[in-house]
Write a structure and sequence with these properties.
Layout (H helix, E strand, L loop, with lengths): L1 H5 L3 H19 L4 H17 L2 H19 L4 H16 L3 H19 L4 H16 L3 H19 L4 H16 L3 H7 L1
Length: 185
């Protein structure tokens, strides 16, 4: 499943993850962390396929198990908060997205620091939420921070850096700074 997921063969990945989930549930039950890990993977597949409702369902199921087994401050749990925050942004529930992503950001910063690539990913998601809610100043601030971290880790000519540049360019477009928009995009 993981192999097919990374090759963007999402239907095939979904098939393998569903089989894995059935096996884990049969032997360990739905509330086992191994089953929850597969639920997260299925959520990721559905997210990438654009089925946000199904992705949200799987992430929420996994979150219940992770919070029970690991607690609310564990990185595994916080990763699911990040995924759920991204989903809530995609479906337009910006308040819920902001809350989840701010919780995730605090834990990532505490565990990895402000200059970590995982922290930067959350900064980018949160910056996009602020852009969507019209707080362009905050959006630019967070996306600028994310872009600097991505450049540090990946360089200027990497697809991940381009992903952040696109988000930041969109924020500048929202305030009609077309020169910055053009340079970033």
């Amino acid at each position: 499943g993981i192999f097919h997921f990374h090759l963007a063969n999402y239907n095939k990945a979904k098939e393998y993850f569903e089989q894995a989930l059935a096996v884990y549930e049969k032997y360990y039950g739905r509330n086992d962390v191994r089953a929850a890990r597969v639920l997260v993977r299925l959520g990721s597949v559905y997210r990438n396929m654009g089925d946000y409702a199904k992705a949200k369902e799987y992430f929420e199921q996994a979150l219940v198990v992770y919070e029970k087994h690991y607690g609310k401050e564990d990185i595994k749990t916080i990763e699911v908060y990040t995924y759920l925050g991204s989903i809530h942004r995609n479906i337009g529930d910006y308040g819920k997205a902001q809350k989840l992503l701010e919780q995730a950001l605090a834990v990532y910063e505490n565990n990895y620091g402000r200059d970590d690539i995982e922290t930067a990913r959350v900064l980018a998601y949160l910056g996009s939420v602020y852009k969507n809610t019209g707080d362009y100043k905050k959006a630019k601030e967070l996306l600028d921070q994310a872009l600097e971290i991505y450049k540090k880790y990946y360089g200027d000519d990497h697809v991940q850096t381009a992903w952040i540049s696109g988000r930041l360019g969109s924020a500048y477009r929202s305030i009609r700074d077309y020169n910055k928009t053009k340079n970033l995009l």
